[in-house]
Structure prediction request, 167 residues.
Amino acid sequence: MDRQIWSWGGALESQRIPVVSGWFSESAVGGGGEEFRLLGTRCSGCGAVFFPREDAYCRNPRCPGGGELVEVPLSRRGRVWSYTDGRYRPPAPYVSDPAVPWEPYTLVAVELEAEGMVVLGQAVPGVTVADLAVGMEVEVVGGVLDEDPATGTARTTWRFRPLGGAR
Prediction:
């Protein structure tokens, strides 16, 4: 969902655009205010849950068929399954400005609480591999992948934030 934020003077401050439309929601869930959620799909025929979402067919080879794929919000919490750091600029075809200093980032594979599936994402800024441990509880939160100050556009994504120690 594209969102524009207006200042009191009526000028456009920024526009938030999801990196991948339909993979997450920054909207209120259950009427409780802003709550970031990853969005998956569940097959009504076999109960399999998918992320990234699947909108064409059930990927479960044991599915009896005939089910519909329904959008479902995924667990907000999970446990670190694995992690590593990205210390190099990605090669082509990925685009990155060589004039901008490269900033390392931390990748986290998280087993979601209810679904039991593993989802990959970046840790929130400032979290390094030294701050993580397998089994540590984390939650998914919204984050900004990059911003274009010339247009006021921020491309949003998901991140994982540690909540406590390892189990």
About this structure: The longest strand covers residues 137-148. The chain is about 0% helix and 45% strand. Confidence is low (pLDDT under 50) at residues 1-12, 28-33.
